[in-house]
Design brief:
Helix content: 25-40%
Number of strands: 10
Shape: globular
Largest sheet: 3 strands, antiparallel
Radius of gyration: 27 Å
Strand content: 5-15%
C-alpha cells in the first residue's frame, strides 16, 4: 500500500476515534441539540432539492418525461423506522408512524384457525370471505353502525359517509316479541338458533353457512368481551340491574395498554342505580332503549369490528400516554387518536397487520376512526377557544358583533383556518386559487390517472392497492 494512502487511513482512523470520545463526553442535552440541528439541516436540504418543482404545473412541458425523474417517483417502501420498524416511502416524514418513538402499542396478534387461512388464502373460500368480509363482520358486531352513507350510482368501490358516525347498543335480552339483534344474538341458548339468526340478517344471503358457523364458535371461544357479557348475564338477578364497563380502567396489576378478560370489579361491574360516568358503557338486562357508545371508550373498536379485534382487545383510550423514545417510560403527554391509528395502520417488518388485510372492512374502519380523530380535534377547539384567541381572528370579530342572531344566543365556537375543511380554511384556499387564475388564466388541463396492474410499482404495492381498492384482487 502506498505510504500516502496509509497515512490518510491512519488520519481517518484517529479522527473517528477522537469523534467517538468527543460524543461520549457530551451531555445528553448537548447530544439532543446536535441531533436537532442535523435534522434541521436535512429538512433545509430537502426543501432546496424540491424547490425547483414548486408550481411546476404552471410551466408544464409535454415533451418532458417526468416518470424518469427520481424526485417525482415515490419508489418502493424501503425506508424502515428505527423505532417501530415501520416501512415507509423515502419522502415520508420520520414521525409519521410512531411520532419518532413516542408511540408504542402492543401488536394485534395474527388470528388462529379458522380466521388465519381465510386471510392468507389457504382456505378454498378465502377469496369469497375477503370479498364479503364487511358482511361477515356485520354478522358478529355487537353495536350498530349509524351514519349517512353516500351511495352513488354505478360502481362504487369505496366507503363514503357524510356527517357524524355513532355506534348504538341495546340491552342483553330483547323485550318480548322483539327479534334478537347485534349483542343479543350471542345470548341465544341454542348455537343452531344463533346460526340461523345470523344467516338471516339482511344483506347476508350470499354468505356461506360454513364460515359463519366456524366464526361463531371461534368468537365464543376466544373473544373476551363476549365471555364477559355471558358471565354478566348469568349474574344479573333482575331487569333493574345494569352492567357497566368502565371507560378508563384496566385490570389490577396489568400494563396500561394490555387488555385481559375483564372479570374484576374495577373493569366491569353489576350495579343498581346511576353511579356511572358519562363515558362508561351501561347495558341493561332487558330494555327497548338504544344507547350510544362514546367514541373514546376503549371497547368502541372491539364492539364494532370483532374480526379485527378478535380477542376483544382495547382500542383507543384518552388515558393512553406517550412514552419516552429512549427509556420507554410513559410520559405525562396524552396520546392522540391520530397518533394511535397512524401507528395501527402502518406496515411493519416481521409483523402482520390484520387491519390492512380486511379490504372493505378496512375502508369502513378507516373512515370510522378518521371521524373519531376529527371529533377529538373539534372537541379541543370547542373547549379551548380562549387559548386559541378565537375572538381576535381577522375579519371575524366585527362579523360576530354585527351579524349576531338574537334567536340563536349562546356560546359561539369559531373554527380556525388551520382546521382543514373549515369555512376559513376553504376561503383561504379559494383566494389562493383565484390568485393563480389571475396570473396564469383559467385552467385548461384535463388530468387523468391510470393504473396498470402489470407495472412494477403496482406489483410492489399490491398489498396496499388490494386494501384500498378491494376490486383489484388479481394483482
Amino acid at each position: 500500500m502506498p505510504r500516502g494512502r496509509r497515512a490518510n487511513i491512519g488520519r481517518r482512523t484517529r479522527h473517528a476515534s477522537q469523534q467517538q470520545v468527543y460524543s461520549q463526553n457530551l451531555s445528553e442535552e448537548r447530544q439532543n441539540i446536535i441531533r436537532e440541528n442535523a435534522r434541521l439541516r436535512q429538512r433545509v436540504s430537502t426543501r432546496r432539492s424540491l424547490a425547483s418543482y414548486n408550481r411546476l404545473a404552471f410551466q408544464y412541458d409535454p415533451t418532458a418525461n417526468y416518470s424518469d425523474d427520481e424526485n417525482l417517483d415515490i419508489g418502493p417502501m424501503t425506508t424502515i423506522c428505527r423505532y417501530c420498524n415501520a416501512l415507509k416511502f423515502k419522502r415520508e416524514t420520520a414521525g409519521l408512524c410512531c411520532a419518532s418513538g413516542k408511540v408504542k402499542l402492543d401488536p394485534l396478534l395474527t388470528p388462529p384457525q379458522p380466521l388465519k387461512p381465510l386471510f392468507d388464502g389457504s382456505d378454498p373460500d378465502s377469496s369469497h370471505f375477503l370479498q364479503h368480509i364487511l358482511e361477515y363482520n356485520n354478522c358478529f358486531r355487537m353495536t350498530s353502525f349509524g351514519a349517512n352513507i353516500i351511495r352513488e350510482g354505478g360502481f362504487m368501490p369505496t366507503c363514503k359517509i357524510q356527517g357524524q358516525i355513532y355506534h348504538l347498543h341495546g340491552s342483553m335480552v330483547p323485550t318480548p316479541d322483539e327479534p334478537h339483534q347485534f349483542l343479543q344474538i350471542y345470548f341465544i341458548s341454542s348455537m343452531v338458533d344463533q346460526l340461523n339468526v345470523r344467516c338471516n340478517i339482511l344483506g347476508t344471503q350470499q354468505l356461506k353457512r360454513r364460515i359463519i358457523e366456524q366464526l361463531q364458535a371461534f368468537f365464543h371461544a376466544n373473544n373476551a368481551v363476549v365471555n364477559m357479557f355471558k358471565t354478566a348475564l348469568e349474574r344479573m338477578p333482575s331487569d333493574t340491574h345494569k352492567f357497566v364497563i368502565r371507560a378508563d380502567c384496566t385490570p389490577t396489576g396489568e400494563h396500561v395498554r394490555r387488555f385481559n378478560a375483564p372479570t374484576v370489579n374495577d373493569v366491569a361491574a353489576i350495579i343498581v342505580g346511576d353511579t356511572t360516568k358519562s363515558r362508561d358503557i351501561v347495558i341493561q338486562r332487558r330494555s327497548n332503549i338504544m344507547h350510544r357508545v362514546n367514541e373514546t371508550h376503549r371497547l368502541y373498536d372491539a364492539l364494532q369490528c370483532p374480526i379485527i379485534y378478535w380477542q376483544g382487545q382495547d382500542g383507543y383510550d384518552i388515558t393512553l400516554k406517550m412514552v419516552d423514545p429512549i427509556t420507554g417510560v410513559s410520559t405525562n403527554k396524552n396520546l392522540s387518536a391520530m397518533n394511535y391509528y397512524a401507528y395501527r395502520m402502518m406496515i411493519r417488518t416481521h409483523e402482520e397487520n390484520v387491519i390492512l388485510k380486511c379490504r372493505r372492512l378496512f375502508q369502513q374502519y378507516a373512515v370510522d376512526m378518521y371521524v373519531k380523530v376529527e371529533t377529538e380535534r373539534l372537541a379541543f377547539i370547542r373547549f379551548n377557544q380562549a387559548k386559541l384567541r378565537s375572538e381576535d381572528y381577522i375579519h371575524l370579530r366585527d362579523a360576530i358583533h354585527s351579524d349576531g342572531d338574537v334567536q340563536n344566543i349562546g356560546r359561539l365556537t369559531i373554527l380556525p383556518s388551520s382546521y382543514i375543511g373549515s369555512p376559513r380554511h376553504m376561503h383561504e384556499y379559494a383566494q389562493d386559487a383565484m390568485t393563480y387564475v389571475r396570473n396564469y388564466g383559467t385552467p385548461d388541463l384535463f388530468i387523468t390517472f391510470t393504473c396498470n396492474p402489470k407495472w412494477m410499482t403496482s406489483y410492489q404495492l399490491k398489498f396496499l392497492i388490494q386494501s384500498l381498492i378491494p376490486i383489484y384482487t388479481t394483482l
